[in-house]
Amino acid sequence: MPSEPLRDVPIGQRVTVRHRLGDGRASDTVGRIIASDDVAVTLQTRRGDVRIPLEVVLVHRVVQPVPWRIRRFLSRAEVAVLDVGTVLRHLDATTPLLEDLGTARIPTYLIGAEAGREGDRLRSAADESRAQFLSTGASDQPTAATYAQAHVEVEKRLGRTVGVGLVHYTDDRAEGVEGAREFGWQARIFTPPH
Questions:
Q1: Same domain (yes/no): 119, 51
Q2: 27-36 pLDDT, tens per residue?
Q3: By the 8 A CB rule, do 54 and 38 touch?
Q4: DSSP state at residue 54
Q5: 150 exposed, middle or buried (CB, 10 Å; 0-12, 13-18, 19+)?
Q6: Alpha carbon distance 84, 56 (integer Å)
Q7: What is the pTM of this model?
Q8: Positive or negative: CA dihedral 168, 71, 121, 92
């Protein structure tokens, strides 16, 4: 059974498109469709947006979406910790993420000075996950000492010792990730799902 024409594949789908280059060779482009019309399709790729005229398309196929790396990373944790500012800036993505962590019964903490100030905005996202707030008062300038203090609080709340390497942390700020890694937590830059 032939696949649907590329121009009819819905916006947002990930596809592989084999197309002819100007010199006659074929090339494959993988990306998410962000625009499509009767003349061309535009894919969002890791290297930027690529517009491919439909007249040079040889074949295409819809591919499965790449698993969200942050979700996988946090779901392998003994304890998951997210920066509060990151959660607030990406509520559409982090609300279901917090729910998934809660369903998996992974102890989850939101860390940062904003935890106290922004409690009302976060409450609905955190309620389903049973995420707890840790206010460090120093999230604007995160250091290894900030995360050491948070780790002591996590162990106190859990009532047990937790190896520092078993805590997985995410933040959309490089300095937050660096500070957590310096302390010994596993940490990754937060990127929203595609």
A1: no
A2: 999 999 999 9
A3: yes
A4: G
A5: buried
A6: 47
A7: 0.67
A8: positive
| 32: enclosing H helix or E strand | strand 26-36
Beta strands at 48-53 and 40-45: parallel, antiparallel or unpaired? antiparallel
Residue span of the structural domain in which 45 resides: 6-62
- What is residue 132's predicted lDDT score, i.e. its pLDDT? 85
95, 125 contact by CB (below 8 A)? yes
Both 55 and 73 in a single domain?
Answer: no
Q: How many domains does the chain have?
A: 2
Query: pLDDT of 121-180, one tens digit each?
Result: 566 555 555 778 776 654 466 889 989 999 999 999 999 999 999 999 999 999 999 999
> What is the C-alpha R_g of the chain?
21
Residues present in the chain in total: 194
* DSSP character string of 66-121: PP-HHHHHHHT-SEEEEEHHHHHHTHHHHHHHHHHHHHTT--EEEESTHHHHTHHH
Residue from 134, 83, 74 nearest 105 by CA: 74
Token duo for residue 184: 């010994």
